[in-house]
Specification:
The structure is a homodimer of 304-residue chains.
Chain A (H helix, E strand, L loop, with lengths): L12 E4 L10 H10 L5 E5 L6 H14 L4 E4 L5 H4 L2 H9 L2 E4 L4 H8 L3 H12 L3 E5 L1 H4 L4 E6 L10 E5 L7 E4 L8 H10 L4 E5 L3 E6 L3 E6 L2 E6 L4 E2 L12 E10 L3 E3 L16 H8 L3 H6 L8
Parallel strand pairs in A: 1-5, 2-3, 2-4, 4-5, 8-9
Antiparallel strand pairs in A: 1-10, 6-7, 9-12, 10-11, 11-15, 12-14, 13-14
Helix pairs in contact in A: 4-6
Chain lengths: 304, 304
């Protein structure tokens, strides 16, 4: 791990589109464990997005045990008071990996947003290089702006999606999950139409977008990550009526299936991945918090 | 209508994504009738894509009658011999509108491709300014290259779509229909990955893409037209294994809902539509056969 990372993060983000295999080959979770440091890692399962703490914990406790992880823990976070608990916050800070389960991202933020636990998670990522993972609601919650409501219209439509404040582990990105399975492109385009500064990243089930902060991204699992970039887009959003279908011209779309891996900035002594195509470079820079590198690489490349 | 059109066509193309309303407001079909010349127009219904000639004819006969069209006709085309019939070809040539029903585009081409009827339809469009319409299979068949088989995978996949020779009323475009309803973006991207020279145009149900050859396009109806442009795209298509999910980077996507209208080349004395955004210009030029105009407008604009 590099310590001079321009993003200031040392750890990986591990963003899962929901429905990851927990019973059979556990490809996605097994990579999470590896990024946490393997069987010796301390992994904390944060279930606060869900109302079913015991069931969620049982699921992941069993899965991580099967993957050889010995030090597994959790805590019931049922109130903001719980989320301010110094002992639990300390446990999160000292974990090598934190995994946020599915549920409802609004619940998760309402419980932990701005609390000691939230702070501990950020510090674990930044200072200790912990790997922070989340699936489904736990994935959506990772960005600074998160989807809180959104009808999955097949076509992008004005006024049908709503954002809220997320955890801010990544910024300038909106994360959607169960993406191909629930046909959510229209809804993600609705977000982009209203917020062209944000990139859309739609993650399929049993698929993870791995962010190496300050470095690049990788996609693993069964599906793909769909990135929609509206920075060059023209739209009638402002003039459209509420619930009207939107016109979007010049959206840039990247479809990155499992196996895709791009490093924008190779670490010292490490070989760079294949060159990153223009157009994709800024998108990855935004996702992986490589503002400086993207700027160094040619500044505003909206014209590429 | 202009006669000095660079495409050499005088008539409109009327490309419907299937499922157009035939019982109630008939918005789409009513516009077709208008473009054919209104109630006085002679409209020929070509059912050859379907095995159910009588049923198809009854449906459209009734719909066009309800729209006030007095001169409606059809013919049973059950063999290539029928499609070579001089009398039927003459009737098509003299029609003000020809409407191709749904069914199977392979059947349609197997019956009429290269016959007198095919020739008559082209000449009616080019010489007489007839409006040529098609819905569902009748829409797919209108392009030079048409989809003949394609599994609607959510993700673009190598080797899962197959093309055949279509009627060639438009070129450089692949038309897909029932587009949002049947979630066919993955399949259209599969085509583009393999054929980056072709634009993909996915048309929703009860929606028409109207092509004013040599001029521009318009979208009417309930849904939208999705245009995917892979000319700047980078893909691993060549190296991917059969049935492998494909990586696509830098696909340009345009979503044009009903109401969208762009003229690349305004006719003499007619006001131009609002300016056509760069990036969309070449796409519309390709759809509307405005090769010269697109070249005049700045040549290869892949960098815009």
């Amino acid at each position: 791990m590099t310590t001079d990372d321009p993003s200031g993060h040392r750890g990986h983000l591990f963003i899962v589109g929901g429905g990851e295999d927990r019973k059979n080959d556990k490809l996605v979770l097994s990579r999470f464990v590896e990024l946490c440091g393997g069987p010796d890692a301390r992994i904390f399962v944060l279930t606060a997005a869900s109302t079913l703490h015991d069931e969620m914990w049982a699921l992941y406790d069993e899965a991580f045990e099967a993957l050889g992880v010995r030090q597994r823990s959790t805590a019931l976070i049922a109130s903001r008071e719980d989320a301010g608990d110094e002992r639990i916050a300390r446990e999160l800070y000292e974990a090598d990996g934190i995994f946020m389960t599915g549920g409802d991202q609004k619940r998760l933020l309402a419980l932990i947003g701005g609390t000691r636990i939230d702070e501990a998670m950020h510090r674990a990522l930044r200072e200790r290089g912990a790997c922070i993972g989340g699936t489904s609601a736990g994935a959506s919650a990772m960005s600074a702006h998160m989807l809180t409501e959104g009808k999955a219209n097949p076509l992008p439509t004005k006024g049908t999606v709503h954002l809220g404040a997320g955890l801010g582990l990544v910024s300038r990105v909106i994360i959607d999950q169960h993406f191909s399975e629930r046909q959510r492109l229209g809804r993600l385009l609705s977000v982009i139409a209203q917020n062209p500064y944000l990139l859309g990243a739609g993650i399929d089930e049993d698929t993870a977008l791995i962010v190496r902060p300050g470095r690049g991204i990788e996609v693993i699992g069964q599906g793909a990550v769909t990135v929609v970039d509206g920075r060059e887009m023209l739209t009638n959003y402002i003039d459209a009526a509420r619930h009207e279908s939107l016109e979007l011209v010049n959206v840039r779309l990247h479809l990155l299936p499992a196996g895709a891996r791009y490093d924008v900035d190779a670490g010292a002594g490490e070989p760079a991945s294949r060159p990153v195509p223009r157009g994709l470079r800024q998108a990855i820079g935004a996702i992986a918090s490589i503002r400086d590198a993207a700027e160094r690489a040619g500044g505003h490349d909206a014209g590429d």
